[in-house]
Write a structure and sequence with these properties.
The chain is an alpha/beta fold. It contains 19 helices and 30 strands. Among the domains are: about 400-660, Rossmann fold, CATH 3.40.50; about 660-759, Immunoglobulin-like. The strands form 6 sheets. It has a 9-stranded mixed sheet with strand order 13-12-14-15-22-21-20-17-18, sandwiched between helices. An 8-stranded parallel sheet has the order 7-6-3-2-1-10-9-8. Strands 11-24-25-30-27 form a 5-stranded antiparallel sheet, with helices on one face. Strand 28 (about 735-740) and strand 29 (about 745-750) form a beta hairpin. The longest helix is centred in the N-terminal third of the chain and has 28 residues, at about 230-260. It is globular. The chain starts with a helix and ends with a strand. It binds zinc ion (ZN). Zinc ion binds near residues 166 and 207. The site of zinc ion has 7 residues, from helix 6.
Length: about 750
């Protein structure tokens, strides 16, 4: 064990001892027979907790071995979670086949005998005033569907979808009864997982109940299946979203009816890579319940999903706390492995720095055994989080608002939304690697106040935009905001059909001459960054001339006259009022007789100039920078070259030359800047992702999964403060910090560091 790990463990052992003293004091004041009473709900100040459930719960189809959950004991779980510094416990109680309490509705696992696991946990949690939340699965109610096949969702051909339930069926009442049974145990709330209508085909629901409801709502029959040419399919999507929303609201109301203090949260899937199939939209379905809960899960969604999801959940539920679930396992909840401590720390502190509260999930052994090594490490990471509590939940300092359009997800993304998602994910990735503060904005709740939070709003290949959205963007720019537009934004109608022109033409200051097919496009910038042969309209004005002088910012760190790949959708623009900068080139694919017949997985080399690379336009007090290509998508793509990302970052700097805090650090270090105006304190969190190299996988080569983080790296960073700096100190005693005027130079040796700066 490294010296570093020993140090962390010794800190945590002290913390653990401390938390037991606290628990003893609290116990003396607890009273039996009622859930913990507090003036604020348990989640308001919660920072870290645990979810515990037996592995195998989802996979046996009711045919569990006799050992299943035999040692899954509510009292032991509460005690171990307290020792591991959990501030609340989400206990797995109901899966598809069983419930873990004495129920009139559902059976228990055979191994329980007379035991009632929820009773064991509730009694022990009450003694320690530990908020106990019941995990209740919603979407795969195998036992209920065996008894009530009529509740199954139905595909367009009328065939039942055996694993999915219809949310317009009487299943709702069954869930309500079950929740009432659970509430009688004196718990604090419910975690409901989840209201999804499936992650792929077959899609539902075409049952008789749904058909009748649809016809009553829209005065027309349901479309006969997925059909993106049919306006009726638009209605069907709205119907599906409304179904999930109504189901969630019915359960929320029912829980409030049990007791207004009961809390409820739904496991949410309105974020990429999930799309219309699940039946959720980003904002509406995040808003049901007391707070949103989602999963970061680098095992399924990649390491960048931690910061992406946290920022997304914040934006989807403005002003509310938001919860992110992570897991102890290396690749999956149920894989029975345990990640190294630093791997857990990197994810935990990424999420906390972004303002989330975090639930660590432990899937016990098949028989319910609790792995002591896992609990040691979980205790260490949760303890460290609690020790650093005062450094989280401040206001984020944002620079770029990344725009997400549900309409574009649905009607351009259709059955392959990943391509649109990559533009959004690439904008996020560029911001993370380049240490640019970011947040998200949604079409569902777009308003002028939301836009004004950000000096820059990025439209990453936002194909579909309504008149209202364009009006809001126009007003935002006229009042001094800045837009960064990429790809083929604004070039599609509400059904995803191509338009002759972009609805953003006026803001961009150019007309669409042609939309380029394919994805292998290139950009080149001459020494004056203005080597375009595609015209220089607008350059005669003084403002445009000064823009050109500044536009060298666009080419910082880029080799002049070198074409580089910017993979993704592209447009040939003809400037009207904008100043063109650089050149967009097509590839040799364009000269092939059968362009798609030649290895479509690999981009082909640069061929010839087809238009300007970038357009810089002014409107009112603000600026608009438009990329004729997609440096955002390029950054997320398999053919990411660093220069494409630099170009994106350079455009941000052109639009907002002096940010409040400029952070320079290695690309594998994420920076999160927060502000506490009351104490005039800026905090700069630095979180290092330091994965180890890997060998080839046993299957699906070359898709190598990232290695685990074992060690804390040593790295340098520099901070520059726009508005002056009175003092700066590092949280970690091993960090070397030098303050020179408004600059701070750092050498950090840890996964997570916080630089606390007074202004
Ligand atoms: Zn139905």
């Amino acid at each position: 064990m490294s010296h570093f790990l020993l140090k962390i463990l010794s800190v945590v052992i002290r913390l653990t001892a401390g938390s037991f003293c606290l628990v003893t004091v609290l116990c003396a004041t607890a009273f039996a027979g009622a859930p913990p009473v507090a003036s604020t709900p348990w989640f308001a100040d919660a920072l870290v907790g645990m979810e515990v459930g037996p592995t195998g719960a989802q996979f046996a189809g009711g045919k569990h071995a006799p050992d299943y959950a035999r040692n899954f004991n509510g009292r032991d779980i509460v005690q171990r979670c307290l020792q591991a510094n959990a501030e609340y416990l989400v206990l797995w109680v109901r899966d598809g086949d069983f419930t873990f309490h004495n129920s009139k509705r559902l059976p228990k696992p055979a191994s329980f005998g007379d035991r009632d696991v929820l009773r064991e946990a509730a009694d022990e949690a009450r003694r320690h005033r530990l908020p106990l939340i019941v995990y209740c699965q919603l979407q795969y109610p195998a036992h209920d569907l065996r008894l009530n096949p009529d509740w199954k969702a139905r595909a367009a051909d009328g065939k039942p979808i055996d694993h999915l339930v219809c949310y317009n069926s009487p299943y709702t009442n069954a869930v309500k009864e079950l929740l009432a049974e659970m509430w009688s145990y004196g718990i604090s709330g419910f975690h409901l997982d989840m209201v999804d209508q499936g992650f792929g085909p077959p899609h539902g629901c075409w049952c008789d109940r749904c058909q009748k409801l649809f016809e009553a709502a829209y005065q027309r029959p349901m479309p006969k299946g997925v059909n993106w040419e049919d306006d009726g399919w638009d209605k069907m999507l709205q119907f599906r979203y409304a179904t999930s929303d109504r189901f969630e609201k019915m359960l929320t109301d029912s829980i409030r009816g049990l007791d207004p203090r009961a809390t409820v949260d739904f496991n949410y899937h309105g974020n990429p890579p999930f799309s219309w199939e699940v039946g959720q939209t980003p904002v509406v379905h995040a808003g049901n319940g007391d707070f949103v809960t989602g999963e970061a899960g680098q095992w399924a969604f990649g390491a960048l999903s931690a910061s992406f999801n946290a920022a997304w959940y914040r934006a989807a539920t403005p002003g509310k706390p938001f919860q992110v679930a992570v897991q102890r396992g290396v690749r999956m909840y149920h894989d029975q492995t345990t990640r190294p401590l630093n791997d857990m720390r990197w994810e935990m502190f990424t999420l906390l720095a972004h303002g989330a509260f975090v639930t660590m999930i432990d899937k016990t052994a098949y028989d319910g055994w609790l792995d002591p090594m896992a609990y040691d490490r979980i205790g260490a990471v949760l303890g460290e989080a609690r020790a650093k509590r005062g450094h989280f939940r401040q206001t984020p300092v944002h620079e770029v608002g990344i725009y997400f359009s549900t309409r574009t997800r649905d009607w351009m993304g259709r059955d392959k939304p990943a391509y649109y998602f990559q533009s959004v994910q690439g904008a996020h990735k560029a911001c993370v690697y380049e240490h640019i503060g970011f947040g998200f904005l949604f079409d569902e709740n777009l308003n002028p106040e939301g836009l004004r939070q950000f000096p820059i709003v990025c439209l990453p290949n936002t194909g579909i935009l309504t008149e209202r959205e364009v009006d809001l963007f126009r007003r935002y720019v006229e009042e001094g905001g800045n837009l960064l537009i990429t790809g083929q934004s604004g070039q599609f109608d509400r059904m995803g059909r191509t338009l002759a022109q972009s609805v953003l033409n006026e803001l961009i200051g150019a007309k669409v001459k042609a939309r380029l097919e394919g994805a292998d496009h290139w950009m080149r910038f001459g020494p004056d960054a203005n080597g375009t042969s595609a015209g220089n309209a607008g350059a005669s004005s003084t403002r445009a001339a000064s823009t050109l002088a500044r536009s060298n910012v666009l080419t910082t760190d880029l080799r002049p006259d070198w074409p580089f790949l910017v993979q993704g959708p592209a447009t040939i623009y003809e400037p009207t009022t904008a100043t063109p900068v650089g050149q967009l080139l097509d590839s040799h694919r364009a000269s092939l007789a059968n362009p798609q017949g030649y290895n479509s997985d690999w981009p082909l080399s640069a061929r010839q100039v087809v238009g300007p690379a970038v357009l810089v336009n002014h409107a009112g007090k603000g600026k608009v920078v438009t990329f004729a290509g997609s440096p955002d998508l390029a950054t997320a793509s398999e053919h990411h070259i660093v220069e494409a990302r630099r170009l994106f970052a350079n455009a941000v700097r052109l639009l907002n030359p002096v940010p409040r805090v400029l952070v320079s650090a290695p690309a594998n270090v994420e920076a999160v800047v927060t502000d506490d105006p009351a104490t005039r304190t800026l905090r700069v969190h630095l979180i290092a992702y330091n994965a180890t190299p890997q060998t080839t996988p046993a299957k699906e080569r070359p898709y190598v999964l990232p290695g685990l983080i074992e060690d804390a790296p040593i790295f340098r960073a520099r901070l520059e403060f726009r508005d002056g700096l009175r003092g700066a100190k590092a949280l970690n005693p091993t960090t070397q910090l030098k303050k020179r005027g408004n600059r701070v130079e750092l050498t950090v040796n840890d996964i997570h560091e916080v630089i606390i700066c007074n202004y």
